[in-house]
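Your task
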Amino acid sequence: MRVYRPVSNPSSTNCASNSATPGDITIDGAILALAHSFAVDNYDCGTPGTLTIHGAIAQKYRGAVGTGNSNGTVVTGYSKNYNYDNRFKYVMPPYVFDLQNTSWNLVRETEANGS
C-alpha cells in the first residue's frame, strides 16, 4: 500500500528543498499490507506535512513515511498522527476479503506470562 506523493524532481540530490508536495493527508480506513508495507512515495523529498490515519494498519514490514533529524523534527515526508478506531475490535471493515478462506497459516505463537 503506497501513498501517492509527487515531487517535481525526486532524483535530485537536493530534493528535500523541493516544495511541490501535496500537504497534509488524511486516511480513514483499515490498511492491510499482507506481503509488504504501508509507505509513502518520495518520503525523503519535499516539505514536511502530517499523515493522519483514523483506522488501523497491519503490515509485514514497516514502511517509511518521512525523515527526521536527531532531535525528532520531521525534515521531509510526513509526521505521523495515527489514531486506532476502536470499532475494529468488534466490527470488520465494510470492504474486506474473507480472511477465513485464504492461505493464512500460523508461523509463530507467543504467550505472555503476565508478570
Remarks:
- Residues 39 and 63 are 4 Å apart (CA to CA).
- The mean pLDDT is 78.
